TrEMBL record:
Species the sequence originates in: Methylacidiphilum caldifontis
Entry's family note: Belongs to the type II topoisomerase GyrA/ParC subunit family.
Active-site annotation: Y134
Pfam families in alphabetical order: DNA_gyraseA_C (PF03989), DNA_topoisoIV (PF00521)
Domain of life, per lineage: Bacteria
Gene Ontology molecular function: any one: ATP binding
Protein name, as recorded: DNA gyrase subunit A
SUPFAM superfamilies: GyrA/ParC C-terminal domain-like (SSF101904), Type II DNA topoisomerase (SSF56719)
Localisation: Cytoplasm
Amino acid sequence: MPQQPENGNQELDNRSSASVRLVDVSEEMKSCFIDYAMSVIISRALPDVRDGLKPSQRRILFAMHELGLAPNRKHLKCAKIVGETMGNFHPHGDQAIYPTLVHMAQPWAMREVLIDGQGNFGSIEGDPPAAMRYTEARLSSAGALLMADMEKDTVDFVPNYDETRMEPSVFPAAFPNLVVNGGTGIAVGMATNIPPHNLSETIDGLVALIDQPGLSTDDLLRYIQGPDFPTGGVILGKEGIAHYFATGRGSLKVRGTIHFEELRGGKSAIIIDEIPYNVNRAALVEKIGELVNQKVIPEILDIRDESDENTRVVIELKRDAIPKVVANNLYKHTPLQTNFAVNMVAIDRLRPKSLNLKELLSCYLDHRHEVVVRRTRFDLNKALERAEILEGFLIALSRLEDFIQIIRQSSNRDEARRKLLGLEFLAEEIEALGIADYDQRLNEGEIYRLTLRQVEAILDLRLYQLTGLEREKIASEYAELLAKIKEFREILASEEKIWAIVRAELLEVKEKYGNPRKTKIVADEGEVAFEDLIANQRVVITLTHNGFIKRTSLDSYRSQRRGGRGVIGMSTLDTGVEEERDFVESLFNASTHDYLLFFTTDGRVYIQRVYEIPEKERASKGKNIASILELKPTEEIASMLRIVANPQSLDGREYALDKEGYIFFCTSKGKVKKTAICEFRNIRKGGITAISIDENDKLIDCMFTDGQKEIVLITREGQSIRFAETDVRPMGRNAAGVNGIDLQPGDEVVGATVVDNRATLLVVSEKGIGKRTSFDEYRKQKRAGFGIKTMKTTDKTGKVVSALTVLEDDELMLLTLKGNVIRIRIKDLRKTGRNTQGVRLVQMDSDDKVTSIARIIPDKEENEETLVP
């Protein structure tokens, strides 16, 4: 082996040292990263604002164009398309090209598909497509439309990656693909997510923008309603749409479309007809199944995906389930309702920009303006070239014998070309032929010479073209060309005509390819209302003397005959000291979706939803009202009014307080007042004043009236007075009221009720004695009188506890000091006269007494006897 020279290593070191360059690592990293980032942004991830395509998409479509895969041609294997794209334009592997091709052929991913696929191209459930050797494709009508007139120099062509051929830098785009199909992409430091829109609406917006360039984004809402997703669905509200129209960014709430169906056996089902955009149907079904297993939505009995080319997911519900409640749970817990985050970023003049909708449309219109100008200029140049040749033909035919002789006498084509180029023609000859631009080609001596292009065309003339018929055709074609040349020049000289062409072509696309919207836009209901997730059930609200409140299902109490012992309704605290013993003081029947107005003894009013009252078992105690309402230390609940929520209300805050009428108040000292309901519409969380209360007085009751009723007040000692409500003038919330009854010393008002001639007045005493008497037995008096006797109070009866207006079909709840509850039918209690003592309603121990009564709203669907669990 030959030895290396001694200085060999030194020479190698010198060569190595010469190629080494010291650089700042941080600066080099910064420069390399910026180059990489811009390459990703410009050449990979973000679409061009003009044709709405990323480079990979554009190269696939152009490769299909080069392969002649027009919409009217047969499909070609996708493997061939991918190979052509990879070999000629996009050398990044089939794993980057084929999924992009598949995406452009999926009707659930693209609002207007750009590729017409044949075979398995995946599914909305997320199933993968078949291998590219099994699938076939061709351009769709929309895909071909993007490349219309591309051969007329309408766009710039650039060398491909190996400079062996040319590819377009952008497509002419005869329709606004970026707005219609949207786009998504993640670059370096930025991302884009543009929703699809309806083609017809988008073109309407473009036409409006051409006609009125000063249109605002708000004006565009009249033409473009908002996104139109290929999967349909429902968009909630226009606020998010208006926001991204104006700023390019925003968030949209999108719901799937459902309907309800009745099944056998009294059961019902929720049918999902459409799902939100970009939601995997199989994943949605799986998520619903998980929620059922986790008991989050226990009302679902079964779920089946019966979809074919159309979505149909059947959610079978249990017999007692409420479909709307289940639907709202689905919206809340599953992708059946999603948020679509809009971020409209695109490449504009080789720079990434965040654009609002008007800017997107304007950029597209500017592109189409340039396309029309370049196409018209191309057509003009082609027409001028052809006209030049036809002019040469006309000259040759006018002196045919001379031309034939020159050509015949020439030894070769070059000699004939030189002789023909040297021919001279007078202006008179040219003018006689009707050549349009002869004056531009005359020399100073008014001599016309043939051009090289004309000479070559004359030398290529065939003999049959010298016949008379062919001469006429040449003259006719020349005349038509002159008209076109004039038209092209007029177009190029007029911005108005250019925009008229852009406008007409857009309308033609709309006429041919426009279709109705798939996505509906409805008023935003706000967030999924919590009350929609709560079944609307009848409940009993109970409040103890010490302020413990709860709600209990009405079915927890059974109907009994009068005289029964009752069931335990609430466990009460019993320390053995009378002052510390708690007992149920108030009872109210309501539905979970209702509102409750809480009027306190100090004359303030608070509002609360019934479902916000803690739900407890029938025998449990409840929760302190002070932890629910912001009560003052001296306040106790005096009365509650049930407010029925308006189901038509979108915000859930419109309720019965919006109607005309009054709230009538009564205090223990006999003061009465009526105040218009509308004054209680805006109740703050901390409550507001409902009535001013004098010292040593307290509010005991209030009720809804229409201002024309008659009122009956009942006192603890059994006195009563009936007077017209009109005797009490309307007053404001801060008024204290006027006298309703003149009380005897030591007496106080315990009840107030509205006269109803269809009903009777029920008076109940502490010992469980009740008396139902017709209102006719109570004569009408003037307000503030002494009144008349309604019940003679004795040791046997005890003092009067309360009084109610009741109907024949009503039911009554009675609560005792020990917490017992009895539910009786009013029809089981016979009517008696005002002077009678009454009948026993409930059997009680000697140390027990009735503390509260309440009327129950009848329910025709309820069984006669409800069993106690």
